[in-house]
Amino acid sequence: MGDKGAMDKMKGKAKQKAGKITGDERMKSEGRTDEAKGKAKSAMGNAKENIQGTKDSLKSKNHS
């Protein structure tokens, strides 16, 4: 499974760079927001995978 937040992070970084080049503060701000959303999605995805892994390991121990 890929990183669900990776696209948002990349989009955010691109917007920040574009905003920096053009001097557009709003674009830079949107980029920071997108990047933060991407980081949050990545963290949530990792947490869900960890929880699923724990559930799976508990199931396998109970069925041994």
Fold blueprint:
Elements: H1 6-22, H2 25-62
Structure description:
With 64 residues, the chain is an all-alpha fold. It is 86% helix and 0% strand. It has helices at 6-22, 25-62. The two termini are 28 Å apart. The mean pLDDT is 88.
In short:
The protein is mainly alpha-helical and 64 residues long.
DSSP helical segment count: 2
Overall pLDDT metric: 88
Q: Element order, helices and strands?
A: HH
Shape: rod-shaped
User: How many beta strands in the DSSP annotation?
Assistant: 0
Cα Rg: 18 Å
Query: What percent of residues are in strands?
Result: under 5%
Q: Level of helix content?
A: over 70%
Distance between the termini: 28 Å
Largest sheet, in brief, is: none
Structural class: mainly alpha
Unreliable segments of 5+ consecutive residues: none
What are the key terms here?
single chain, mainly alpha, 2 helices
